[in-house]
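User: Hey, my collaborator sent me this sequence without any context and asked if I could get a structure. I don't really work with proteins. Can you help?
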Amino acid sequence: MNPKQIKGTYTLRADLVEMTMSFLFTDSDRYTEISPSDDFMLNLACADIDRPINNSISLISNNKLFIKRARILTLGAPGLAPSAISTLAAKILIVGRELDNINSDPVGGFSFGLSLYNEWQDLNIEFLPIKKSENYFLSIDSQYTKMWIDDYNLQAAYIGEPFRPVLEMIVDTAGVMDNGGTIV
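Assistant: No problem. I've predicted the 3D structure and written it out in C-alpha cell form, which is a compact way to encode the shape of the chain:
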C-alpha cells in the first residue's frame, strides 16, 4: 500500500519536562548539558487554533510525516540561550513506537538539531514508519537527546529555579488520531 497523501498541516506539542526534572539554574556554568535520565514517551497534543487542543494524539501508520519546522519553548526562562561553547541548543532523537509504551516495538525514528531556543527553525525531515499497527506514538531516546544552555550571568531571581521545555513541531501528514480513534 502506498502512503496516503498529505491531508493537512498540524502543530504538534509535547512537554519535555523529563529533560529538566533535576535541573535548577546555578548561575555558574557557561556549558551546562541537560539530558533525560531515561527514555520517555511524548504526550503529543494537537495545538492548532482551528482544531481542539487534544492530549494524547497518535500518528497514523503508513503515512508520511513531514516535519517542516520545530522549536523548543523554554517556559519559565524566556531569554534562555544555548551554550556559547556548543554549536547546538538541542539535539533530539525521536523514536516511533507501536504502542504508547516506552517498551513497545520501534517503528523507526528521526533526529534533528536546533541552534536556538524559542524560535522556529526549518527542518524538512521526512519520516515513514514501518507499519505494525494502525497508529503509532513518539518517544525520546535519552542516550542521544541533549540540551546545552548558558547558565551564567543570570538575574538573581532565576538562580535555584527550574524551567520547562516544550517541543513544538509543524508537520504535514495524512491526519492525526485523537485518543478516541477519530482522525482529525
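In plain terms: The CA atoms of residues 47 and 53 lie 5 Å apart. You can pass these C-alpha cells on to your collaborator as they are.
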